[in-house]
Amino acid sequence: DLTRAWLSTDPDAPGRLRFPCGSQVGSVTGLGDGFDQTDLFSSTSVGDGLITPQVDRFALRSRIRAGLAPTPALREQILPTVLECPRLLLVPVLDATPPVDTEQRHAVVGFTYFWVSDVRSRTFSGRPLRGLMTTSSLQVVGIRGWAVDPGYVRGGDWVAHQEDPDDALPMSVPRASVLVRTECDDHPDSECPS
Question: Global pTM?
Answer without folding.
Answer: 0.77
